[in-house]
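JOB MANIFEST
job_type = single_chain_structure
chain_count = 1
residues = 83
[input]
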Amino acid sequence: MALFQGVLFLCLGAGLLLVDYRALGTGWLTCGPNGFKGRLEVSKDKHPTGFWLMFLLYGLAGLWLVLFSLQLLLGQAEPLPLS
């Protein structure tokens, strides 16, 4: 189970960091689905404070997931419980 969680969290964390890196070039971050109203997007030009806050949150979450997954794969952390 630790191997599966480690690989999954590594992919998710790397994906978050990739989205964060891509946001530096494009100037906007998406915040996920918003039902039938479309998705919430934060632009660097229109909402700079919101953009940098989301940039920080994406970066911290991605970094935490990558570090936790590496600890799982190296056997230094316990896998998350199933229930």
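[summary]
The radius of gyration is 15 Å.
The first helix runs from residue 2 to 26.
exit_status = 0
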